Amino acid sequence: MNTNPPALPPLLLDNPRLDQWVSFPEPGRVTVSTGRVEIGQGVLTAMLQIAAEELDVAPDRIRLQTGDTDLTPNEGYTAGSQSIQFGGVALRLACAEVRGLFLDHAAAAFGYARADLAMRDGRVTRGGAPTGHDYWSLAAAIDLTRHASGRAAIKRASEHQVVGRSAPRVDLAAKVFGMPVFVHDMAKDGMVHARVVRQPRRGAKIAAVNEAAIRRAAKSPVEILRDGNFLAILGADETGVEAAAAVAPGHVSWDGVDPINPAQEEARWLLQQPSIDRVVGAPPAQPAPAATRREATYTRMHIAHASIAPSCAMALYEGGRLEVWTHTQGVYPLKAALARTLKLDPGAISVKHVQGPGCYGHNGADDAAADAAVIAVRKPGIPIRVRWRREEEFGFEPVSPAMVTTVHATLDSAGHPIDWTTEIWSGRHSSRPGGGGNLLAAEALPDPPPAPPPTESSNPPGAGTRNGEPLYDFPQKRIHHHLIAETPVRTSSLRGLGATLNVFAIESFMDELALEAGADPVAYRLAVLADPRARAVIEKVAAMSGWQAGLPSGTGKGRGIAFARYKNLAAYAAVVAEVEVEESVRVTRVWCAADAGLVINPDGATNQLEGGIVQAVSWALKEGVRLDTAGISSRDWETYPVIKFSEVPEIAVELVGAVSDNPPLGVGEASGGPTVAAIGNAVAHALGARLRDLPLTRERVMAALLKG
Amino acid sequence: MVRFPASEKAMPTTSLTVNGNAVSVSADSDTPLLDVLRNHLGLVGTRFGCGAEQCGSCMVLIDGNPEKSCGKALSTVAGKAVLTIEGLGTPEHPHPLQQAFLDEQAGQCGYCLSGILMSAKALLDKNASPSRREIAAALDDNICRCGSHPRILRAIERAAFEMREGAGR
Questions:
Q1: Residue A343, phi-psi category: left (phi > 0), alpha (psi -120 to 50), beta (remainder)
Q2: Å from A175 to nearest chain B CA?
Q3: What is the pTM for the complete model shown?
Q4: In the prediction, which pLDDT does A223 show?
Q5: Residue A74 burial (CB count, 10 A)
Q6: What is the rounded distance in angstroms from the CA atom of residue A586 to the CA atom of residue A76?
Q7: Does the beta-carbon distance from A611 to B51 stay under 8 Å?
């Protein structure tokens, strides 16, 4: 046992009462609450393991409550690879304190020596023998409304029985057997289906609606609901409502829709925009001689979340209370945003998380919930189910902003950087609804809220600037950030945020500098990297992949390596990619070594790293949102292609230092940036020419080859 | 409900077999099979993904062939046998594919899995020993966005092996 310092983790400060985390509702059962929600990442299983471990109860005794504004702690958003690193650590400490309180009480009440007592599956043992006391018999005597002290002793990794094991996911069986697990599958008596006819753009005003044409398409009775510029089609028959919604955009005309510039789908337009500028780090002491300076510029298009299903929500307004079922990442922030939009008392709103399609950031989930809520308060007593259309999700979800990153380095005589600047141009990476802005329904209703101001979080972790500072030991390094306030389309967070392009830029440039120095890319990195955990993952992935220095380039086959520590404070990941390039790029194999500190569920962490790799291969080779004058034009899977099964490489992932007393580090976003960068480096090795603009499409390969 | 009547007119009745059971459905003949399954028969295991036959979330077997149910009008399946994920297996009696997906922990959000399992079932019915490449090709009409592909491919190989072993016992 070790003793934690009494400094409480932030989430325990926000939710200090122990009964907000743990309660004993009936004999043999434990209720554990977490504000974190299942978005496909397996967090339910990991939280269950953490609670079972520190409470010393069998996992199947635990009922997990998640993401419910009536029941669970307020943990903000399930985002940023922070669920285990912060939410799990808070839960662990709360559970450890509860266990300790019960054992303290048993010692005091029955005259046992405290050191002789332990908990075994919820039962108090003394010297290993049962005492007849357990959590449930003692629960009445112990006040869990008290605040956490943060002084509880948590277990060491060597004592773990449940944590550190690859427990099977608690949510998977229901999915494999096709059970109604998703919010899309909810049904309520008297339920009405609704679809919204979206404003083409913020500020657009309805000029005319051909209601007769919309009704004709439905073939079944529908109601057309309009308030300001919010327009919805309602009906009991989903097939009819869907058919009406499919034709409706062609039967509504709008005023105040300014065309956008489709050329802005490529990122370099950002360089000409007014920006809000910020420097992180000290300016260079002296301008360096031109001969020692190097720079290169890398870009990325807008990227869609492209969740497998469009967003969905249910809402019911009855007796002055609003209930909303949603796959939002943040039930509490959504509740606040709904209260402001609907001018309701927050106390009259309950927001409950129900699982949805895999979520990789701020997609349409919150907007769909707002749609359902806005309709529900206008139709009291009727459950309203809103399911977005596929083209609506692609066309109106916030996308990850296009970005440009230029890396400037000053080299010493050995060709190593002594001064490094990462200069970043990007639209905002966060526009979650929070206090009430940025819900599409709110923008369409009369008296819309002002557009939310552009924001950027400080470093680390940063948002657009995330991973803008390399972890390498360069004597001087800084970030120049140009936050672009006006973007052609709505933008917000996507897995990795700015780290994806910044890691691509930094790690590509490291390879370019290594090439110039005549050095092997692995050796070049290790020469400027002291952090032992960073070195360990690079050395590990080199060994896993059988990395060989000095293989010839330009053969059509190539290998590349890349490394990052996500946010510079979460998991470390190093990746080697192997590619074959003819006219287009094929990624054949990927190896990844990651250090995520103490790993709660090794298979779960591996699954996240693998998923991140596959998604990053898709980003690197295929993905970019297309624009036309009306907005996003890539509104289906043919115009926004993602990776297919036959394009997925062989993947090997290993966890380094998973059984340790190092704190757990968020792993969900750790492999993406390094994978994109490793592919870029492998392509450069295969071609003998560098591609600096993502995605690495056939057209870009051909252009690079022609340029020579 | 007065305000939202489900229909104003008498609907034609279509007969088909779903998961071995004869069913009659009163609905417009051009209602997508997916809507019939989810909204008329309460079989929500077949998921809506795109409504445009592009993602495979709604894959079912029609007379043994994998088909995207969002694009199949009810009239086209009259008299045919439809198999959905609910008919593949149950927790008590899982299909070897379902057991293999659990054994390999093949999934993240799981939204695509119903459709992928049905595509895999159609493959293994025709080819008991598919190569990795053949499995991947058979799944190219199914999108998985979470990146569970390596596990899904392993699970299908495992199921094929188990089924061959089972058949040989």
A1: left
A2: 6
A3: 0.97
A4: 98
A5: 15
A6: 40
A7: no
**Cβ pair A30, A62 in contact under 8 A:** yes
Instruction: State the Cα–Cα distance between residues A141 and A268, nearest whole angstrom.
Output: 66
**Which residue in the block uniquely carries the two structure tokens 């903000």?**
A76
d(CA A81, CA A566) in angstroms, rounded, equals: 9
Q: How far is B59 from chain A (nearest CA, A)?
A: 12
A183-256+305-396 fold = Aldehyde Oxidoreductase; domain 4 (3.30.365)
Q: Please check whether residue A147 is in contact with residue A14, taking contact to mean a CB–CB distance below 8 angstroms.
A: no
Amino acid at B94: P
Say what the ipTM of the complex is.
0.96
Q: Is residue B1 part of a domain?
A: no
Are residues B48 and A178, on separate chains, in Cβ contact within 8 Å? no
Name every chain B residue with its beta carbon within 8 A of the beta carbon of A42. 108
Position A219 pLDDT exceeds 80: yes
Shared domain for B55 and B43, answered yes or no, is yes
Distance in angstroms (rounded) separating the CA atoms of residues A388 and B49: 10
Q: Is A120 helix (H, G, I), strand (E, B) or coil?
A: strand
List % helix, strand, coil for chain A (3-state, nearest 5): 35, 25, 40
Contact A577, A693 (CB under 8 A): no
Q: Do B109 and A610 touch (CB under 8 A)?
A: no
Q: In what order do the strands lie in the sheet with A417-426?
A: A275-280, A476-484, A417-426, A403-411, A293-300, A693-694
CATH (domain of B114)? 1.10.150.120
Band of residue A287 on the pLDDT scale cut at 50, 70, 90? confident
A543 contact partners, CB below 8 Å, separation of at least 6: none
| Chain A nearest CA to B169, separation (Å) | 26
For the cut 60, the answer to whether the pLDDT of residue A3 exceeds it is no
Q: With contacts defined as CB-CB under 8 Å, which chain B residues touch A179?
A: 45
Distances in Å between the Cα of A342 and the Cα atoms of A223, A336, A356 are: 21, 10, 24
Within this chain, do residues B93 and B82 fall inside the same structural domain, yes or no? no
